Amino acid sequence: MISSTDTAILKASDIPVEPASQQNERILQTQITRLITGSGFSNLAGIAMAIIWVGLIWNDLPHEVLSVWLGVMLLLFLYRFSVHYFKLYSDDSKISIDKFVINIDYEVIVVDNNSPDRSIERLASEFPQFRFEFLKTNFGFGHGNNIGASKTTGKYLLLLNPDTYLIENLPLKLYNFADAHPDFGVIGPQMNYPDGTFQVSYANFPNIKQEVAKALRIIRPLLNVLHKIKCKISKEDFFDVDFIFGSCMFIRREVFEEVNGFDEDYFLLTEEVDLCYNIKQKAKYRIVYWQGTMIVHLKSQITGKDVSARFKQEYISKLRFFKKHYSFFKILAIRFIIIMIVCLKYLFHSLKKRNNQKIKDVYLYIIKLYLNTNINEI
What we know:
The chain is α/β, with parallel strands linked by helices. The protein is built from 14 helices and 12 strands. The chain has helices at residues 20-37, 41-56, 83-91, 97-100, 123-126, 141-150, 170-179, 208-215, 219-233, 253-258, 271-282, 307-325, 328-351, 357-371; strands at 77-79, 108-112, 131-134, 156-160, 164-165, 184-192, 198-199, 202-203, 238-240, 243-244, 248-252, 286-297. The strands form 2 sheets. Strands 1, 2, 3, 4, 5, 6, 7, 9, 11 and 12 form a 10-stranded mixed sheet that branches. A two-stranded antiparallel sheet has the order 8-10. Strand 6 (184-192) and strand 7 (198-199) form a beta hairpin. Helix 2 crosses helix 8 and helix 8 runs parallel beside helix 13 (328-351). The longest helix has 24 residues, at 328-351. The protein is globular and about 60 Å long. The two termini are 16 Å apart. Residues 1-21 and 27-95 have low confidence and may be disordered.
């Protein structure tokens, strides 16, 4: 879901000969074309990005597995559900909580982030074993999770999106695994699509190489290849990663509280990246991907299928992350690459016979945003 403050930019008053939006678009398009094509820039930029990418690719290999020791903790089971997915998955006996979650104490907190369909309020009587929290205002993904966590008593948090469902006793397996590894702050299980195929559920912290791979539309196959390499060379069925995707995260509660939970300045996207960064870099706990258990995820059912809105929100959140955690020169480099990539996207999209004005407005918004250094305007 996108904030109501999101609007198209670079609009001006109407001009008799040419509409202002088209005039601004034409002028910016000309400037972008000159910037990209002038002085052989595109060739140099392409070569530079390729060199940077190849030079950094080996950073994806797993770190050495550190020694661990035993510990005892209790389980907390935290859910976030919308009406549709809650009823769909709770009514299906083969994937229900009651069927798979056994031999362990747990509690379920359902946080409704002010969903438009208020029929979710009737579910409280249908599922008395679950605790419901109905928020009157949607302040974002992180805020909803923080509210849910504050209403719980367990020592572990299992954060789940409503478009995920169980196919085995995931909580018990994660509990036993975390219990044996007290230096693990966050654990992510293997994630599959409904047809059983593998789904990437972890990544490195945002960097130039990722942006280049996304621009070349090879990020997904690249991540799949790197995953296979990690699994093959790892001596264990788990390995360290930078962050786990927010659709399923098993978090040690004391660690979650030590870093003050999710940063609520993020409305949607990148908040789990920020959380894992704080846990790994500041609290000094490990972020681990474990192949010993799995869950099914219907990808993009939460953020929706509006590609332009998701693209816009992603880069709004990323810029906040960069300015919060990265050095000046690292921010400068990654912003430069992103601006160049988005400029190319804008130019290529403009050359299409049937182009989408909405996505072009989003590209213009991101270009302006990344040229602006004032984080308060985000």
